[in-house]
Amino acid sequence: MKREHIFDEKPAAIFIFCLLYGLHMVEEFAFGFVEWADRYFGNFDWPQNLIGNAAFFVCLALACYLYYKNPAKYLWAGMSAAMWVLANSFIHISASILSGEYSPGVVTATVLYIPGALYFLVKWGRKGLLTWKNIALSFAVGALIFMLIPSFARAVLLHAQFAKLFYLVRS
Q: What is the pTM of this model?
């Protein structure tokens, strides 16, 4: 009898992204992310923060759930979760470096998000599952649509500090 290839022995491990997101939110909430984001992204307040984080969490949990239920079919969803946390890390780290100011969330983004995302990307890479197609799709969904485009667009439209750090608008 032919033995079926096991795509992922522990697909439930993908839900670690939800835990990491929760820890990241604790750092952001406890250390003044809303006030920081108001300066760097412009016109930012608590209701926007709560609604945005709730929406991101639902999308993240849905991506993890899809991957969990069928890793072969929804590899792109699991990879999108990894790309989203990497894009979020990029924003926190780059803003901290370029501004010289602590970005609330940069510690968990650096210490938890990057290793967590790399764990899964390396795991999938060792199984030969990373193709240009699924990398591009997951980057487009996870990084561009859910993180980078909205963050940069908002900052540019509002002439906020974050856009100035990247020389996208003039002071």
A: 0.87
- Spatial distance between the Cα atoms of 135 and 116, rounded to a whole number of angstroms: 17
Q: Which residue has the tokens 């750092």?
A: 27
Scan for tokens 């300066």, then name that residue.
39
Measured CA to CA in angstroms, residue 129 lies from 8, 73, 86, 123, 134 at distances of 11, 12, 19, 9, 9
Q: What is the pLDDT of residues 128-161, one digit of tens each?
A: 998 998 899 898 988 888 777 777 777 777 777 7
Question: What DSSP state is assigned to residue 14?
Answer: G
Q: Which of 109, 95, 100 is nearest to 40 (CA)?
A: 95
Residue with the two structure tokens 């984080």:
53
Cα 61 to Cα 23, 80, 81, 87, 123, distances in angstroms: 15, 11, 9, 17, 20
The Cβ-side half-sphere exposure at 77, using a 13 Å CA radius, reads 20
Cβ count near 158 (within 10 Å): 15
Q: How far is CA 89 from CA 25, 111, 161, in A?
A: 13, 10, 18
16's tokens: 């670690």
> Kind and range of the H or E element at 161?
helix 161-165
The three-point CA angle 116-122-126 to 5° equals: 150
